[in-house]
Amino acid sequence: MLKRYFLIAVLLMLTFVSLYAVGDTEKASSGSSIDWFELLIVVGYLVGVFILLPMIIYTNLKGKLFEPASGNQDEIQIIEGLSEEERNNRAALILEAVEEQLTSFQSEDGENMVTIANGKQAKFMRNGLNYINKKLSPTNQDLISRVNEFAGVYEDRTRRAFTGSNWIILCSLAVGVLFILSAGGLKTFIFLHFFGLLFYILSSRTTFYGIQKRMELFGGGSNFVSSIMSALFLGKATKYYIKESGHSWKRDWESEGQMAIFGLIFLIVVAMILGFFSAFLGVINFVINYSTSFILPFKAREDWFEKEINQI
User: Helix, strand or coil for residue 252?
Assistant: First the structure.
């Protein structure tokens, strides 16, 4: 039921955005162009803040593995009617299925190992280990050791680190301060803007397997926005020279001053744009960092084992 409500909410939001775009299209047909800037801002705030931000917060809260020794014994509900041997056998099947889902690699010592390389694998491992700890509680020490080993892999690979741009955060804060100073009737939008900034920060937290994949694809390069901002600052270090009579050279301070002023103005414009687009950039980050690993606040399926393991 909750899943149905979630889909309805997404459809309503997309319908709103579509109607907004249609309205702008009608304006365009009457002689004015579509305000894409405003449209992207609306998409960022509405989709990002009202739909994706709660999903990210819930995913970060519920993404950790259940630990039997954590004191949450009320969550352990061992399946009735299964003997100790049957529970151990079922746990072994799940661990085999989890291992088959993982990505193989060779360690520096030449040992064959497995690890998490994407969000789908992470979710499958999390569901499998939680099912074992909550529903089966195996007694075989070899199985318990494998569960603990997989749990260590999961905790290590799903740790998240901020990979966003500090520039975007500063620019967004600056835009928020400008709104506060000239608030008028924009007080509600101020709160929406800062929630959009929070959404950007949380959506920019990338898992370690995600970071590794980016390093392999881009050779360890920084994110696109950071590269742009670095290029802008590198431009400030450019030195200009002019040739005097006698073939001597001297610094052209006038040209450097003009370029510095031009660069500063351009930087301010870019900063304002980035500040307004923080929520929309958060939507892009969500697609990159959470689209395959987010968790919805729906009741866990009781037939997970039958659906995911027995059919393998």
Answer: coil
Q: Which stretches of the chain are DSSP H helices?
A: 2-29, 36-43, 53-62, 84-101, 119-131, 141-157, 166-181, 187-203, 208-218, 224-236, 253-276, 278-289, 304-308
Give which of 8, 9, 136 is closest to 84, Cα–Cα. Answer: 136
In the beta sheet, which residues pair with residue 113?
A: 105
**Each residue of 11-40: pLDDT tens digit?**
444 444 444 444 444 444 444 455 666 777
Rounded CA separation 97/197 (Å): 40
DSSP H or E segment with residue 103? strand 103-106
- Give the dihedral of Cα atoms 5, 11, 12, 18; nearest 10 deg: 170
Distance separating alpha carbons of residues 213 and 259, to the nearest angstrom: 38
Nearest to 236 by CA among 206, 258, 216: 258
Contact 196, 172 (CB under 8 A): yes
**In this structure, are residues 77 and 134 in contact, taking their beta carbons and an 8 Å threshold?**
yes
